[in-house]
């Protein structure tokens, strides 16, 4: 039986918790993270908190979809133990909550385009960890840079939390699930699926022996052929988010692009 709570009390903290933080507008991607959480057999706690501090743009914050009632229904259908709906004043009471600056990876890609974003993310995640005291937490691989920085924060602060990573969940056309997809028209959703097609194309060209630069160029052209406004399309070494070198073992191709002015991100692994 799911309990909806606004604060954390001793009763909730009495067992080990698997924590799934969200900003709401729950979709199948979130539900797949819940499924992963439930596999731990721990108590599952899903937070829904639209964290103003991670938005570097007021308009983006105001437009972010909010669907609390539907979110509760969906999470109840998954039988999560707790849905945590904190007020802003509970998460950020006065001055006492430390702001967490990201390491240098926080200033490239998403961090370069959205100054202050990762500081906002790490600050809220650290604060929620402090409130919920989870033994495990589930994060999606779609936000690859966020995931990297959260794992980095856990190492830096020696937090005793095991991070479980959830695969990217896509619609039948390949569009990565995101709460922001709710802001897209049907046509835009179809068009946005070209982002993943371009990622796959870049990987195909690399596998055919083209250089990273040539392959990225082909990806950029493909994106530009559609009404998609590209921010970046870049390959990084997954271990450190640097440009790959001959020692790199795992690579990721990452992108951010706007469709109908909605910022979408996606990524794909490159096997080498
Ligand atoms: O990935 C998200 O939805 C958010 O960045 C998170 C981790 C819930 C922090 O607000």
Q: What do these coordinates show?
A:
- This protein is 36% helix and 20% strand.
- With 272 residues, the chain is an alpha/beta fold.
- It has two domains: 3-166, HUPs (Rossmann fold, 3-Layer(aba) Sandwich), CATH 3.40.50.620; 179-270, Pantoate--beta-alanine Ligase, Chain: A,domain 2.
- A six-stranded parallel beta sheet has the order 1-4-3-2-5-6, with helices on both faces. The chain has a three-stranded antiparallel beta sheet with strand order 7-8-9, with helices on one face.
- β5, α7 and β6 form a beta-alpha-beta unit.
- α6 packs across α7 (144-156) and α8 (186-207) packs antiparallel against α9.
- The radius of gyration is 19 Å and the shape is globular.
- The model has no long low-confidence stretch (mean pLDDT 97).
- The site of pantoate has 10 residues, from β2 and α6.
Relevant terms:
single chain; 272 residues; alpha/beta; Rossmann fold; Pantoate--beta-alanine Ligase, Chain: A,domain 2; 2 domains; six-stranded parallel beta sheet; three-stranded antiparallel beta sheet; 9 helices; globular; binds pantoate
* Unique bound compounds: pantoate
Strand order of the largest sheet: 1-4-3-2-5-6
Give the H and E element order: EEHEHHEHHHEHEHHEEE
Secondary structure: number of strands: 9
CATH third-level topology of the largest domain: Rossmann fold
Question: Main sheet?
Answer: 6 strands, parallel
- Cα shape: globular
- Percent strand: 15-25%
Q: Nearest-angstrom radius of gyration?
A: 19 Å
- Strand-pairing-aware structural class: alpha/beta
Number of domains: 2
Terminus-to-terminus distance? 46 Å
The CATH architecture designation of the largest domain is 3-Layer(aba) Sandwich
CATH superfamily of the largest domain: HUPs
- The helix tally amounts to 9
Question: What is the level 1 CATH name of the largest domain?
Answer: Alpha Beta
Uncertain stretches: none
Q: Quote the average pLDDT.
A: 97
Percentage of residues assigned to helices: 25-40%
């Amino acid at each position: 039986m799911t309990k909806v709570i606004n604060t954390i009390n001793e009763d909730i903290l009495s067992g080990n918790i698997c924590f799934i933080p969200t900003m709401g507008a729950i979709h199948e991607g979130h539900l797949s993270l819940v499924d992963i959480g439930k596999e731990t057999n721990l108590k599952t706690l899903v937070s829904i908190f639209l964290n103003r501090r991670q938005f570097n743009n007021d308009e983006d914050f105001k437009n972010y979809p909010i669907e609390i009632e539907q979110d509760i229904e969906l999470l109840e259908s998954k039988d999560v133990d707790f849905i945590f709906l904190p007020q802003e004043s509970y998460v950020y009471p006065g001055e006492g909550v430390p702001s967490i600056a990201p390491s240098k990876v926080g200033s490239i890609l998403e961090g370069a385009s959205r100054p202050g974003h990762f500081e906002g993310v790490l600050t809220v995640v650290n604060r929620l960890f402090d409130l919920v005291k989870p033994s495990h937490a589930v994060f999606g691989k779609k936000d690859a840079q966020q995931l990297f920085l959260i794992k980095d924060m856990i190492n830096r602060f020696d937090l005793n939390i095991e991070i479980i990573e959830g695969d990217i969940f896509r619609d039948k056309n390949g569009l990565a699930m995101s709460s922001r997809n709710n802001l897209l028209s049907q046509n835009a959703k179809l068009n946005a699926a070209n982002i993943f097609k371009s990622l796959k194309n870049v990987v195909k060209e690399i596998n055919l022996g083209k250089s990273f630069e040539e392959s990225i160029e082909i990806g950029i052209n493909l994106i530009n052929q559609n009404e998609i406004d590209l921010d970046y399309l870049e390959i990084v070494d997954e271990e450190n988010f640097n440009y790959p070198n001959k020692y790199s073992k795992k690579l990721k191709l990452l992108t951010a692009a706007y469709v109908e002015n909605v910022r979408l991100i996606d990524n794909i692994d490159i096997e080498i």
